[in-house]
Structure formats: C-alpha cells, structure tokens
Amino acid sequence: FFIVSFITSFLTANFIKEKKKLKIFKYLMEFSGGMLLFIAFNDILPHTMKIHNHHDDPKNDHHKLDPGIFTGAMAFICLLFLRKIFAYSKYESNGNLDLNESDCCSGGLENNKSKVQIVVFIVNLSIHSFLEGIGSMNISRMFAMLIHKGVESFTIGISLAFSNFSKSLILLLVIFNSIMTPLGIITQMFPKFEKLSWFLNGNALGSILYIIFVEIFPSMLKDLSFLSIIVFSAGYLTTIVINFFI
C-alpha cells in the first residue's frame, strides 16, 4: 500500500504538467467500487454484527444496539463531516462553493487555489486511508483497496503538481498519506486489539460504504453509461470469483 501510494502520488506531483482526466481512472474506480460492495456486505458486515438467535431467548426478539453497526454508521458520518470541512475550506478560499464536485476522490481539485485547502484535502484522505486499513483483511479486499489507493494517490499527485509547494513539503505530504493505510493494517494486528475487532471492522465498514456511496456512485450517476454499470458489475463478480478460489 505504501509503495503504490508513494510512487503514484510522488511521480504524478512531479511529472504531470497539465490536467488530464483519464477515463481509465474513472473505470478503475468503478471496478474497485464493485469489489468493495461485495467486500462490505460479505466480508466486513458479518464481523461487525453479533449473532442473533430468536428461538433461544424471547428477549432476543427485541434487537439491541449493535456496537459494530453503530460504529460503522458513525465512521460514515464523521467522513461526511470531513468532506464538509474540505468544502468549507474551498468556500473560504475561493468565495464560492461548487456543488457539482463529485468526481471520484477528486472533487474540488479543478479550481484549487489555496495551499491550506490542499493540505485539508490530503489530511481528509489520510484519515480516510487509515480507516481503510483497519478491519479484517483478505486477498480480495487487499486487491480492491490497492486499486482504490492507486487512483486516490493519483488525484493527490495532481493537486500537489499545481500547488507550488516545495519538493520537501510535497515529499512530506506524500509520505504522510502513504503510511496511513499500512498504519491501520498494523494497528489491527496487535493481540490487544482483538477484543476491539467490532470497533475496527465497524470503522472499516463505514469507510468502505463512504467510498461506494459518496465517492463512486455520484460520479457514476453524473454520467451514467452501460459501460460504467458493466465495469462496476465486473468488479463485483471478480471478487466473488476470487473468494471462491482463494
């Protein structure tokens, strides 16, 4: 994760000289979105829920608050707050707010003029990346997250390419963002965090649902095509195949 994020962000920041919206990145994001949809509901969600048996105890007919599901919902809401903070930073910098910014992971980068705004954007994605790293990890999820991380890092690299930051500051920001997902993965490996698996998986669930429903779906619906639907479905079906054979 670190290598993919660092190389993509740093090379893009230093060698991209003009803004180009490459279709391939849009389709890669949609493909990873299909993979993440399967992962969220098949791999992560079961780990956040307690097993309910309605026949053993009549009291179970009344569902109590599930801490894992609650944590996932709160993580989703917190990421929405971070997105709003970024949007507010843009309003403060430019004096107006473009509500049509919905491209995958890159909303608002077209008119970036404020260095503070770019830093807020990267910090937002870095927190987001940390949450991506926590929770149960398997081959299919790791593959999907690598694709998403690569596209996300590309958008960060573009924003840094036009930021007029010094090379040392660009390097620092790239490293900061690149270590967050591995840090999340390392965090959940410690034995003492085993009892908090519901919390970690809840945060992972909220983060993945945020990627799907806030970052990917709006971009797809903005310019919906049969190809986008096919690519998204291919990502979903690919994950099923990976889970079947691995």
Structural domain count: 1
Strand content: under 5%
Tally the helices.
8
Provide the succession of SSEs.
HHHHHHHH
As a percent range, the share of helical residues equals over 70%
Rg, Cα atoms, Å: 19 Å
Unreliable stretches:
95-113
Mean pLDDT score: 73
User: By helix and strand content, what is the structural category?
Assistant: mainly alpha
Distance between the termini: 21 Å
Rough outline: globular
* Quantity of strands, as a count: 0
**Biggest β-sheet: count, sense, barrel?**
none
Q: Which characteristics define this entry?
A:
single chain; mainly alpha; 0% strand; globular
Short description:
By secondary structure, the chain is mainly alpha-helical.
Walk me through the structure.
By secondary structure, the chain is mainly alpha-helical. It has one domain (2-49, 66-245). It is 72% helix and 0% strand. It has 8 helices and no strands. The chain has helices spanning 2-15, 23-48, 67-94, 115-133, 139-161, 167-187, 197-222, 226-245. Helix 2 packs across helix 5 and helix 4 packs parallel to helix 6. The protein is globular.
